[in-house]
Specification:
By secondary structure, the chain is α+β, with helices and mostly antiparallel strands. 46% of the residues lie in helices and 15% in strands. A hairpin with an 8-residue loop joins strand 3 and strand 4. It is globular, with a radius of gyration of 21 Å.
Length: 395
């Protein structure tokens, strides 16, 4: 992605390190699918390269990069392995969220280990009881990507109303000793993400490890008083939503790369060359301009969000809904375009060993994430465009 801004030296180096990892990630894709887990070697390489600390505060060994650099890294990784890029987006965005928590919570996670990793599942499944000093929670949560690699987890639940503060979505931070992982991730695509269930049985969570997820005030995000970089002032939904859609852009680019390499040499059983097929020519052209368009929108949106954050301003409702809709739309259009590429490979493309077939499965799996339900977010944006109130409390 040709950025419209000047990158820092740290950002340049992180992007270059990500690019160097792509061949090894590609070689491990079949293993990740079989094991239902990104290989430990891949996680070690991401950590050694500093990539998982891209959004982490400098005070705890991080780089505090512009979100556009973070997402560029994610797209590059997806050219090698979309499962790796997916968990990179999820686990890599959590340091950004933790930076907004009270410093006490940040010290608990990173005080002895700057490489500590956090998984999540924000579905509001917690049974929440208010107790002195915090909360007791129980529940079962699905879809915790990369959980087996992590030492902490962020879990969703509804915080009860307190005084003048209405009930709202909260995020509870728990150490590995407070939860169990139920291995049940056996799915169509993104198999390597290992997005298993999390089980919690009546655990105490102190107040400093609980955050009102969508509240962007300084009172609700006290870590911003210490971590003053404007990246931490962007609304939560504008950052996390992109963490679960942007790998699709890189995966589509990876499919284009594989398709071009195959089409250049493939001759079908009846003697026809794929490269001569007008349908194949159109499919690769349309996939390419789709990648370019999606990158440009991402770049523009974060340029705007960063300018607002630097000015201490909050994006208005229509902007938040539009950007949220555009994020959700990504996986849908990328899945459609990889469908066209795979169809152009005819029967020989349908073997599971075909990288485009794997990316087809991964992209269609990504469509299923609730944050990528583009129809719901489109309706919310359209409702406000037509003068109705915002129907989405999370945006």
């Amino acid at each position: 992605m040709q950025s419209m801004r000047e990158r820092t030296q740290d950002e340049i180096e992180l992007i270059e390190r990500a690019r160097r990892l792509v061949p090894a990630l590609k070689e491990r894709t079949a293993q990740a699918d079989r094991d239902l887990k990104v290989p430990e070697e891949s996680i070690a390489e991401l950590q050694s390269a500093g990539l998982l600390r891209a959004l982490q505060p400098r005070a705890f060994g991080g780089y505090e990069v512009d979100p556009r650099t973070f997402f560029e890294i994610q797209m590059i990784l997806a050219e090698g392995c979309m499962s790796t890029a997916w968990i990179y987006g999820v686990m890599g965005v959590h340091p950004w969220q933790l930076a907004r928590y009270p410093v006490e919570a940040q010290r608990e996670v990173w005080g002895n280990d700057h490489e500590a990793l956090i998984s999540s599942t924000y579905m509001p499944s917690a049974k929440v009881t208010v107790v002195e000093g915090g909360y007791r929670i129980s529940g079962q949560w699905s879809f915790s990507s990369g959980s087996e690699h992590c030492q902490w987890v962020l879990l969703g639940g509804i915080l009860p109303a307190e005084g003048d503060v209405a009930a709202e979505h909260g995020t509870f931070l728990l150490p590995r000793s407070d939860y169990r992982i139920q291995r049940n991730w056996d799915v169509l695509g993104l198999r390597g993400t290992g997005s298993h269930d999390i089980l919690v049985e009546d655990v105490f969570v102190p107040a400093h490890r609980v955050q009102r997820t969508n509240n962007c005030t300084i009172e609700a995000t006290p870590g911003r008083q210490v971590n003053t970089n404007p990246i931490y002032a962007i609304p939560f939904a504008q950052v996390f939503s992109r963490a679960v859609s942007t790998s699709a852009i890189g995966a589509l680019q990876g499919a284009i790369n594989e398709f071009r390499a195959n089409a250049a040499k493939h001759i079908g059983k009846h003697g026809a060359r794929t490269a001569d097929d007008p349908v194949a020519q159109t499919a690769v052209a349309e996939a390419t301009i789709t990648v370019d368009s999606l990158k440009l929108v991402l770049e523009r949106n974060y340029e705007h969000l960063m300018s607002l954050a630097r000015a201490g301003e909050y994006p208005d409702t229509e902007t938040r809904l539009l950007y949220r809709y555009q994020s959700a739309y990504v996986t849908n259009v990328c899945a459609d375009k990889v469908n066209d590429l795979l169809r152009s490979m005819a029967a020989s493309g349908l073997y599971n060993t075909n990288p485009v077939a794997r990316l087809f499965r991964d992209l269609h799996q990504a469509r299923g994430h609730i944050a990528n339900n583009f129809m719901a977010y489109g309706r919310a944006f359209g409702a406000v465009q037509l003068g109705l109130p915002n129907p989405d409390p999370y945006v």
